[in-house]
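INPUT
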Amino acid sequence: MEIKVLTNIMDANDRVAQENRKYFRDNNIRVVNIMSSPGSGKTSLILKLAELLKKDTQLAVIEGDIASSIDAEKIIKQGVPALQINTGGACHLDSSMISDAAKNMDLAPNTLLFIENVGNLVCPASFDLGEDLTMVIASVSEGDDKPYKYPKMFEKADIIVLNKVDLLVNATFDREFFIKGVRALNSKAPIVGVSCRTGQNIKELAKLIL
Amino acid sequence: MEIKVLTNIMDANDRVAQENRKYFRDNNIRVVNIMSSPGSGKTSLILKLAELLKKDTQLAVIEGDIASSIDAEKIIKQGVPALQINTGGACHLDSSMISDAAKNMDLAPNTLLFIENVGNLVCPASFDLGEDLTMVIASVSEGDDKPYKYPKMFEKADIIVLNKVDLLVNATFDREFFIKGVRALNSKAPIVGVSCRTGQNIKELAKLIL
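OUTPUT
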């Protein structure tokens, strides 16, 4: 018996992503899709950016996790509206999840919307959500070889953040090797070293997002 | 037109995993499948264990990465035979890749074989490779909430390693919260705090693997 394989799954995701993009643009909502390994500091970075921006900018956050609502709780505690998506096993967010979430949140025009993807350096790279910018976070404690091992993620990023730079003094992290790995894949994206602990360069990063 | 969906993909993986398991047992090869986020210290831990064990035990390593051979090179430099699998995009190893790799390596009887999976806390949890033990590594720098966010990985682990415990003094890591999260999912697996930097508890961990 012949087995037919579903080959157009990405097209379906892309189609809804385009609808999301149109909806966001029509409502002047700016969307940043944040991706990284587990524990690189996605939530911490959103909290630091929110601290800086929330006075002058309407913010909202969509949190993606397989399980739990830990991250959304942290965001709401800071006075920023947040919705938690539990993927229930899926290793990434897709455009339909974002479409549902955005409708549910009733976002005001002129909102800056952060989407925190599921912690994973692989699968989220393949799914357009309708965002304006993709931001990939690597962290010093993960080591300097991540661009070499997870090329797709770094290849498509619009902004690359190196978090936990306060650990550079003690870590065996070769910053030049990291940057060389990024630049072999991506000649355009700014690479910004930040520390969510000390606040270093958070302002500079915020300017790239707005 | 009706679209048929391939629903038995896991069965195919499980079938080859069983073949691998039989082959490994027949040849007295003990196999540990090591999984974690990118940068939690899979390679570093293998290198520390190899340093300790290679005098008395025949070792071999299968390295899994989407791209690059950085990890296999590190292992070979320590005098341990290693083979690098490049998945070319796939977010996990599967049992067929291990079957091919094991045949290629011509493993001696009585070998202790480490398989380093692709850095990913999600997808590898769903793919039996035919291993004897699964070992999941979390690290202090990733934060204490990983068991809550990636339950499947911690639920099925035989050994849970908490790496980078030398960072506990400076990190905001609640060890009790981490352990509580693990124990809600997994009542059996030993939880071993180690540091690949200082060598703390590497011997204790080795005893659990042999």
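end of record. The mean pLDDT of chain A is 94.
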